[in-house]
Amino acid sequence: MKHTKEKTRDQLERTNKGLVITVIFLTLMFLSVLALGYAGYLMMNRPVDPVCNACENHVCVNRSELAITIHLAEEDFIHRADEMEEVITADGGDVQIWHTFLEKLGAAKVVLEDKDATQSEIDNALLELRTAHMALQEYH
Predict the structure, then answer these.
(1) pTM of the predicted model, to two decimals?
(2) Going by C-beta distance under 8 Å and a sequence separation of 6 or more, which residues neighbour residue 97?
(3) Which residues are within 8 A (CB) of 133 and not within 5 positions of it... i.e. 6 or more apart?
(4) Would you say 51 and 122 are in contact if contact means Cβ atoms under 8 Å apart?
């Protein structure tokens, strides 16, 4: 009889260990599925363009490149406006290049902030700002 009780107890312990392992495995699987589901939810509900303000007609335009170019142009030259104008003037350069750059930078900012701007307007502002920026960099 002792032998049968010990055998039953061993089987019960193995069964309990198997159940614990199964519960742990199922819990980990559930948490994995939950995490993947949440990650999928985040991916589906993120904006395509962090600078994009989808307008009422649901046309989303890409403003990121223009925003980055404006930022880089400001970092490059706006903080050194006096220095740049002096360098251009000292080299006998045309100060109009500096003024054109500032004009194109201002126009690009207006287009960037215009929530009704088309992709074509954004692309044109980007091209004009980059052209003016490159012309100005020749004096840098």
Answers:
(1) 0.54
(2) 88, 132, 135, 136, 139
(3) 69, 73, 76, 77, 101, 104
(4) no
